[in-house]
Design a protein that fits this description.
alpha/beta, eight-stranded mixed beta sheet, 37% helix, binds S-adenosylmethionine
Amino acid sequence: MRRPSWVPEGTDLDKPNAARVYDYYLGGSHNFEVDREMARKAIALWPELPQIMRSNRAFMRRAVTFLAERGVTRFLDIGSGIPTFGAVHEIARAIRPEAKVVYVDRDPVAVAHSRLLLEDDANSAVVQADLRDVEDLMARPEVTGLLAEGEPVAVLLVAVAHFVSDEEDPRKLIGVVRDALPAGSALALSHASLEGRPDQAEDHQKLYQRTPTPLTMRTHAQITAMFDGFELVEPGVVYLPQWRPDQPGTVGEHPERMTGVAGVGFRP
Ligand SMILES: C[S@@+](CC[C@H](N)C(=O)[O-])C[C@H]1O[C@@H](n2cnc3c(N)ncnc32)[C@H](O)[C@@H]1O
């Protein structure tokens, strides 16, 4: 197979990669058969998975659009995956052509793909760093450079904080990020939650405890507490499809089936 231009030399294309598997769920084209095979196995166990991922990505699109419409032009996307299908810089620049985005992910493969995809983009940067080592992340020159401009920065933590365990204390980590932000900055966060699907808790536990990246499901109250120091905009922390839907009809009768909640808040 010819190596596509967005694939760095040396990438092992015989192994599935979570960010490419995610791209497949979203309907993107940055994935290989080995990724699709893994996705199909997961979908067999949990058929709603692609719909959940798309619902999450649609929240991100609506949140970035909302923030750009409120005048935000700086974005720090932590846990970005590969910025392909519906990437933050594309969504933001549809409204604010001058928008700058710093993408951060801990996964070296996602970072390598992202760097190649964005190498000609002067207003975006890609950083390999881990939210759990937040001091290191916030000290990276791309991040300090973005913050030093003094403009409000929207921090995106979209479908990432559930990869941080209770012991690693995501609320505290987010507090460190918050304290570095200029006034008027924002947090957009989505997070897995089984509060509306207690019937599924046992299956999820089994599925995820076996993976190298276990998920910690949290309640609305725990996720709302992550917005400490931010003022939540309406409608607060709600199930993914309920956050400022494009049209009321798109919410569906069972938003809790998307097993995720989300919100956006501003730092006063
Ligand atoms: C489900 S994807 C979400 C991608 C994108 N934010 C979205 O919602 O469409 C989660 C991403 O977070 C990254 N990630 C997980 N834990 C992380 C951590 N502690 N620090 C930085 N990135 C992390 C993974 O490598 C993966 O690319």
